[in-house]
Specification:
Herpes Virus-1, about 180 residues
């Protein structure tokens, strides 16, 4: 934010400005809290997508052959292959009875839940998210820089970690505000 020069204002104008600022201050605070919450949600979603991408690269069997995305609700079809439920249901709804994998005719459209497979995908994704998804040359491999960072942060007290995070967030927000003014 830019500071404004109020030195030339008379007392009445300054009082009026102060009154208006104090009126909108609660709304501004609410807006800033909502904005911070939205930023956290977006970062979390970004982290989830990165984790899913890393898991999909490391475990190609977890990927639906129709959508090429990590399966969330895997099912077994009559051709013996696993698919994302929604994708294979759409496949059948379009009238196709041919296997997406083998192109062979499927005798029925029955789908069987892959419960164990679903748990394995979910657990692998949870482990990847807990480890902190990192983009690198390998699918989620930990670099020596990551190891040094983890060892530094592991030795910090929770209070020091909280203060450090607050300072980092404050600097980031200040940087974001100043970079928007430059644009």
């Amino acid at each position: 934010m830019r500071a404004c020069d109020v030195s030339d204002l008379d007392d009445d104008a300054l009082d009026e400005l102060y009154r208006r600022v104090t009126q909108v201050q609660p709304q501004v605070q609410t807006f800033l809290h909502e904005l911070a919450a939205q930023r956290i949600r977006l970062e979390s979603e970004k982290h989830s997508r990165r984790s899913a991408d890393l898991v999909a690269r490391a475990h190609p069997d977890f990927v639906c052959p129709i959508s090429h995305a990590l399966m969330r609700d895997p099912v077994l079809a009559a051709d013996g292959h696993s698919y994302e439920r929604r994708m294979i249901e759409e496949w059948f709804a379009r009238g196709s009875m041919q296997s997406p994998m083998t192109n062979a005719y499927m005798t029925n459209t029955r789908l069987f839940p892959e419960i164990t497979f679903k748990k394995a995908i979910k657990r692998t994704l949870e482990v990847q998210m807990a480890a902190g998804a990192r983009w690198g040359d390998g699918a989620g491999e930990v670099t020596s820089v990551d190891r040094r960072q983890r060892s530094r942060t592991a030795s910090r007290s929770p209070e020091r970690e909280r203060r450090s995070n607050a300072v980092t967030m404050g600097v980031t927000m200040l940087h974001d505000d100043t970079s928007e003014e430059v644009d």
